[in-house]
Write a structure and sequence with these properties.
The complex is a heterodimer. Chain A is mainly alpha-helical. Chain A is built from eleven helices and no strands. Chain A is 76% helix and 0% strand. In chain A, helix 1 packs antiparallel against helix 7, helix 2 crosses helix 9 and helix 8 crosses helix 11. Chain A is globular and about 55 Å long. In chain A, 37% of the residues are buried. The relative contact order of chain B is 0.19. Chain B is globular. The chains are: A mainly alpha, B mainly alpha. Chains A and B meet through helix 10 and helix 11 of A and helix 2 of B.
Chain lengths: 283, 80
């Protein structure tokens, strides 16, 4: 087995990064839904909008079987990333569980309503990965987890304002997890850039151009729900201020280098489209 | 470069990036109301910076709401 290959170098670095991530997760970030959430501090008088947002987040998180299967299939040949994906699945599983429990324990939804929602969502819809390669999926995770982190932080504040210490605590734990996931993905991208900077940047540009949050095609009435979520202070400017610019800075990429990658990604997409059209015309 | 030239440049670049018409824009037009998303906005800014050979500081980008805000940032850099 050849050892001094780009793939082997990447694998060794990513394994070290995963071990670092996992050690911090095990030592500093673990929480459980039984002991660490003040369930008796859920506020039954909290607004319906607060409950609708929690239900929306729980719904998006509920597609965990699809996310896990999709993510693992793409990275199964890469040890560090595959193990990360398995750990990611465990951490994410607590998110929908905690939010669902809050909906029921706060009295905002009955147990039947909660089970009806689970059944209807998972039987009627299935999440499909937006991208096909491990590198593109990593870039997607880097952006999506950072966005999710910010959304949960905003909603933690909203829960506090509505005197729901229970939901605020849940959002606190969930946001912390999402931030750690985004950071891991950013570190992976940094390693991938060391081996192929241009190709990695083109992949990031491609992901950004085709980006959508996972809930868009999964949760019924998502457009209406997103308006309620934006009431918490999530707007388009947040993307630039809190996601795009900080991520580029962390990766050591200037806006103009990214712009150049965007142009290349657009050219590549046009070529792929032209090839597809030619193939269809020939059939 | 005059106000009018910058507005025209925004229009040409935005049409190239977003593949749609921006015929009726003014300096007062709110960029998000034009249907320009955050990423396209970054692309438009970057293309204008390249053409004019200048760079708006990152921290100024988040203050841009209208087309006029962007033109003013560019005018500041041109005068700097």
């Amino acid at each position: 087995m050849p050892r001094n290959t780009p793939r082997r170098r990447i694998e060794e670095k990513l394994y070290a990064q995963y071990m670092d991530f996992f050690e911090k997760a095990e030592r500093e970030r673990r929480w459980n839904v039984f002991d660490d959430i003040p369930w008796d501090e859920a506020n039954p008088e909290a607004s319906d909008d607060l409950a609708l947002c929690a239900e929306t987040f729980a719904s998006v998180e509920m597609f965990l079987p699809d996310y896990t299967a999709g993510g693992l299939n793409v990275v199964r040949d890469y040890f560090g990333r595959a193990w990360f994906q398995a750990n990611w699945g465990y951490e994410e599983s607590k998110h929908s569980l905690a939010l669902g429990e809050w909906l029921v324990r706060s009295g905002k939804r009955s147990k039947d309503e909660w089970f009806d929602l689970q059944e209807s969502l998972l039987q009627m819809r299935k999440w499909q990965p937006l991208f096909t390669t491990a590198r593109q999926m990593t870039a997607y995770g880097m952006i999506q987890e950072q966005a999710t982190f910010l959304i949960y932080v905003k909603h933690r504040e909203r829960a506090r304002q509505e005197n729901d210490a229970c939901l605020a605590k849940i959002y606190d734990y969930v946001a912390r997890d999402e931030r750690a996931h985004s950071k891991f993905y950013q570190d992976v991208i940094k390693v991938l850039m060391e081996e192929d900077r241009e190709g990695t940047l083109v992949d990031i540009a491609h992901v950004l151009a085709n980006f959508k949050m996972p809930g868009v095609d999964l949760v019924p009435d998502y457009d209406e729900r997103i308006l309620k979520m934006r009431d918490a202070g999530i707007d388009r400017n947040v993307f630039i201020r809190k996601i795009y610019l900080p991520v580029l800075k962390y990766l050591g990429v200037s806006r103009h280098e990214m712009l150049s990658a965007q142009r290349k990604a657009i050219d590549a997409q046009k070529k792929a489209q032209a090839n597809d059209d030619a193939t269809h015309a020939a059939e | 470069m005059s106000d009018k030239d910058l507005l025209q440049m925004f229009k040409v670049v935005a049409e190239r990036v977003d593949k749609k018409s921006f015929a009726d824009i003014t300096r007062e037009s709110v960029i998000t109301d034009l249907g320009v998303d955050s990423l396209s906005m970054m692309q438009i800014v970057g293309e204008m910076e390249t053409e004019l050979d200048l760079q708006i500081p990152d921290e100024d980008l988040v203050e841009i709401v209208t087309v006029g805000d962007l033109c003013a940032k560019i005018e500041n850099r041109m005068g700097a």
